[in-house]
C-alpha cells in the first residue's frame, strides 16, 4: 500500500497537502448527503436559514463593496497596470477571451433561468397585490439585478486578484497567492494548503450540483422532443456519460484547443437562439422594454444594492430565496470562475479586465433576460392564459413549454438542448482544468490521466447524489460556505490594494535624491557606499566628518555675508541642523538626522550582495523647518551637502517672495503658545 501511494504521487503533479484532505472531505460529504439526505438536508437547511435571516446584510454589503471596489480601481491610476510584465500582450483575441470567460461564468444558468426567473418573480404570491404591468417590470428589474454587475463583480474580485499576483508577482495561479502581501512565504506552507483545499472543495461541489440539476433539465428537454421516453435515472446516467466524455476530451486537449473552440461555438449558437426568439417573439415590445428595463435598473441601482427589506417583513422570505441565495451562489462559484478567468487574462490591463468582466457580460445578460424573460411574461399575459405562471415551480420544463408557444418549437427546442449541452461541457471542461490546477498548485504540465480522474469523479458523484436525492443537501452546504469565503474575498481586496500601492511606488519611483545631477565623478567611492549597509556608528561618523563640517562651512559663509546662521547638534539619535533666523519670515532649517531602516528579508539572504549583517541599517536623512518629508543623503560628499542645503535655501527664498505663500511663510501670524 505504501509503495502504491508513493508511486501515485511521484508519477503525478498532485500536491498531497491539497489533494488528500480535499478528497477525504469531498467523499465524506458525498457519503452523508447520499445515505442520509433527509437528515443532512434538515440540519443544513436550519443552518442556512439562520445565516440568511441573521446575516443577510453581510452578503448584501460584501457584494456591494466588491462592485464599488472594482469601479474604484477602474477609474484610478491603478487601472493602467498590466496583468503581467509591462510589455505583456494578451494571449487570446478579444472575442475568444470574452467567449471563454462568459461560458465558464454563467452560460448554463442563462438557459436554466432565462425564462424561469422572470416567470418566478412575475407569479410570486409576494407581489400578488401589484397589477400585471408592475409585476412584469419588477420581474425584469430583479432579474437584471441578480444577473448584472453585482454577480460579475464577485467573479471579478477573485479573477483580478489571482491574475495580478500570478502574472505580476510571478506566483502560482492559486488562491494562496492572493494572500502574499499578508502571509509572504508562509503561503507555501500549511496555510496555503488550507486555502487551496477550501477552493478545490468549493469548486468540486459547485460543479457537481450544477451538473446534477442541469442533467434533469436536459432530460426534460429530450422527453419534450420525444427522444427519451421518461425523465428516469437510467437516461440521466447516459446524459452524464456523454457530457463527461466530451468534457474530458476537451479538457485534456488544453485551453487553447477544446475549451476555446467550444466556448466560441456556444456563444455563436446562443446569439442565434437569441435572435430567433427576438424575431419570433413580440419584437417591438422586447426592444422597447430593454430600453425601459435598463433605465429602471440604473434608477433603482443603489436602492437595490443596499436593500435588506428590513422594513418589509412580508417580502423578506422572497429576498432570502432569491437575492441572498444568488449572492451566496455567485460567491461559492467564484474560486472556480475566478481561477479560469485569471488563467485566460494574462496581458490585459486592470482597466480592460474590469471593463470587460463587468460591462460586456452584464450587457449580454440584460439582452438575454429581456428577450427570453419578457417574451415569457408577455406570452403568459396575452396568449398563454397563465400557463407559464402555473409552471413556475417546474423550472426544468419551463424553457421548453415557453418554446412551444413560439413558431417551429421542434427546431428551437433542439437548438436549446444543444446549447445547454455545450454550455455544460464548457463548464465541466473548464472546471476539470481549474480543479487540476488547484490540486497541483499550478504545475506547468500534468499527466492527462489527472484530468480524466477529476472528470470521472465529477460524473460518478453527481450521479450518486442525483440517485440518492442528496443534491439539495450538497447545494445547501455550498451556499453556507459562501459566508466565510466572502470574508476571505474582502482580504483579497486588501491584499490587492496593498500590492497595487507597492507596485505603483516601485515603478514610479525616480532615482534617489543623491543621484540627481550626479556626473559620475568619484564613482568608485559611490559604488563602495552603495554596497555597504551601515551601522549607527558608521552613519554617526558620516554626520560628524561630512555633514557637520559642510554645514559649519556654509554657516560661516552666511555669517560673513551678514546673515545670521547657526549650526546645532543633538545626540541619540544624532541630528545636525543649519538654522537661519528671521523676524518676519519663518526660520529656515536644513537638518540631517540618523534614522534606522528595516532591510528586506530577501535582501538579507541574497548571497550576491555583500555587507548585509542584520535586518536593520542606518541612513542620514534630511529634515526641514516646514516639516516636509526628507530624503537620504548617504552618498553625498561635503560639497554636495553644501550644494543641497543651498538649493533648499534658494527654494525657501523663492517661495517667501510670493504673496500667495504668506500663510506658510509669515512668522507674525503664529501663536507664540502653539
From TrEMBL:
Q: Which InterPro entries match?
A: BCCT_CS, BCCT_transptr
**Subcellular localization:** Cell membrane
Could you say which residues form the signal peptide?
Answer: none
Keyword Transmembrane appears in the UniProt entry: yes
Mind listing the GO molecular function terms for this protein? Answer: transmembrane transporter activity
Location, primary (coarse class): membrane
Q: What are the UniProt keywords, alphabetically?
A: Cell membrane, Membrane, Transmembrane, Transmembrane helix, Transport
Gene Ontology annotations for the cellular component aspect, listed alphabetically:
plasma membrane
Q: How does it sit in the membrane?
A: Multi-pass membrane protein
**Which residues span the membrane?**
18-37, 57-80, 92-115, 144-167, 194-213, 233-255, 267-298, 318-341, 353-371, 415-439, 451-471, 477-497
The source's domain of life comes to Bacteria
**Pfam family, any one:** BCCT
What's the family? Belongs to the BCCT transporter (TC 2.A.15) family.
Q: What name goes with this protein?
A: Transporter
Amino acid at each position: 500500500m505504501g509503495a502504491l501511494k508513493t508511486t501515485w504521487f511521484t508519477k503525478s503533479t498532485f500536491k498531497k497537502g491539497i489533494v488528500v484532505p480535499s478528497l477525504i472531505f469531498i467523499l465524506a460529504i458525498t457519503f452523508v448527503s447520499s445515505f442520509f439526505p433527509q437528515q443532512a438536508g434538515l440540519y443544513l437547511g436550519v443552518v442556512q436559514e439562520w445565516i440568511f435571516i441573521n446575516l443577510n446584510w453581510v452578503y448584501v454589503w460584501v457584494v456591494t463593496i466588491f462592485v464599488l471596489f472594482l469601479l474604484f480601481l477602474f477609474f484610478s491610476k491603478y487601472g493602467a497596470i498590466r496583468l503581467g510584465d509591462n510589455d505583456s500582450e494578451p494571449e487570446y483575441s478579444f472575442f475568444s477571451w470574452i467567449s471563454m470567460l462568459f461560458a465558464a461564468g454563467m452560460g448554463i444558468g442563462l438557459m436554466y433561468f432565462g425564462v424561469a426567473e422572470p416567470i418566478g418573480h412575475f407569479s410570486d404570491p409576494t407581489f400578488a397585490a401589484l397589477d400585471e404591468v408592475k409585476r412584469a417590470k419588477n420581474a425584469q428589474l430583479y432579474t437584471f439585478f441578480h444577473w448584472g454587475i453585482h454577480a460579475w463583480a464577485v467573479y471579478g474580485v477573485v479573477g483580478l486578484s489571482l491574475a495580478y499576483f500570478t502574472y505580476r508577482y510571478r506566483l502560482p495561479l492559486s488562491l494562496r497567492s492572493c494572500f502574499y502581501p499578508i502571509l509572504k512565504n508562509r503561503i507555501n506552507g500549511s496555510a496555503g494548503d488550507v486555502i487551496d483545499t477550501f477552493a478545490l472543495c468549493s469548486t468540486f461541489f459547485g460543479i457537481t450540483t450544477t451538473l446534477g440539476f442541469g442533467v434533469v433539465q436536459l432530460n426534460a428537454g429530450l422527453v419534450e422532443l420525444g427522444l427519451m421516453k421518461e425523465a428516469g435515472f437510467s437516461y440521466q446516467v447516459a446524459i452524464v456519460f456523454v457530457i463527461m466524455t466530451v468534457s474530458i476530451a476537451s479538457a485534456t486537449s488544453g485551453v487553447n484547443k477544446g475549451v476555446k473552440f467550444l466556448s466560441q461555438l456556444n456563444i455563436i449558437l446562443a446569439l442565434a437562439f437569441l435572435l430567433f426568439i427576438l424575431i419570433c417573439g413580440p419584437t417591438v415590445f422586447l426592444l422597447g422594454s430593454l430600453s425601459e428595463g435598463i433605465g429602471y435598473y440604473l434608477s433603482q441601482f443603489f436602492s437595490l444594492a443596499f436593500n435588506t427589506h428590513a422594513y418589509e417583513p412580508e417580502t423578506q422570505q422572497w429576498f432570502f430565496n432569491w437575492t441572498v441565495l444568488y449572492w451566496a451562489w455567485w460567491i461559492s462559484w467564484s474560486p472556480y470562475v475566478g481561477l479560469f478567468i485569471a488563467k485566460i487574462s494574462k496581458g490585459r490591463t486592470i482597466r480592460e479586465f474590469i471593463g470587460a468582466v463587468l460591462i460586456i457580460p452584464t450587457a449580454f445578460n440584460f439582452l438575454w433576460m429581456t428577450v427570453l424573460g419578457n417574451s415569457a411574461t408577455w406570452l403568459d399575459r396575452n396568449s398563454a392564459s397563465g400557463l407559464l405562471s402555473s409552471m413556475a415551480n417546474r423550472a426544468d420544463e419551463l424553457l421548453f413549454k415557453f418554446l412551444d408557444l413560439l413558431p417551429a418549437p421542434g427546431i428551437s427546442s433542439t437548438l436549446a438542448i444543444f446549447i445547454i449541452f455545450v454550455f455544460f461541457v464548457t463548464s465541466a471542461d473548464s472546471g476539470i482544468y481549474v480543479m487540476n490546477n488547484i490540486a497541483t498548485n499550478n504545475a506547468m504540465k500534468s499527466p492527462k490521466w489527472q484530468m480524466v480522474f477529476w472528470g470521472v469523479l465529477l460524473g460518478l458523484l453527481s450521479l450518486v447524489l442525483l440517485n440518492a436525492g442528496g443534491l439539495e443537501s450538497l447545494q445547501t452546504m455550498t451556499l453556507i460556505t459562501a459566508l466565510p469565503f466572502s470574508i476571505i474575498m474582502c482580504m483579497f481586496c486588501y491584499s490587492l490594494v496593498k500590492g497595487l500601492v507597492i507596485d505603483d511606488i516601485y515603478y514610479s519611483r525616480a532615482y534617489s535624491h543623491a543621484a540627481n545631477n550626479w556626473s559620475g565623478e568619484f564613482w568608485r567611492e559611490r559604488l563602495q557606499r552603495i554596497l555597504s549597509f551601515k551601522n549607527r556608528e558608521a552613519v554617526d561618523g558620516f554626520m560628524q566628518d561630512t555633514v557637520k563640517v559642510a554645514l559649519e562651512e556654509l554657516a560661516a559663509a552666511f555669517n560673513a555675508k551678514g546673515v545670521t546662521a547657526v549650526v546645532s547638534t543633538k545626540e541619540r539619535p544624532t541630528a545636525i541642523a543649519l538654522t537661519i533666523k528671521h523676524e518676519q519670515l519663518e526660520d529656515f532649517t536644513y537638518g540631517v538626522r540618523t534614522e534606522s531602516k528595516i532591510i528586506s528579508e530577501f535582501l538579507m539572504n541574497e548571497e550576491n550582495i555583500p555587507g548585509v549583517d542584520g535586518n536593520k541599517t542606518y541612513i542620514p536623512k534630511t529634515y526641514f523647518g516646514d516639516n516636509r518629508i526628507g530624503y537620504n543623503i548617504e552618498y553625498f560628499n561635503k560639497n554636495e551637502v553644501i550644494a543641497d542645503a543651498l538649493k533648499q535655501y534658494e527654494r525657501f527664498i523663492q517661495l517667501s517672495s510670493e504673496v500667495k505663500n504668506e500663510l506658510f511663510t509669515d512668522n507674525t501670524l503664529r501663536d507664540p503658545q502653539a
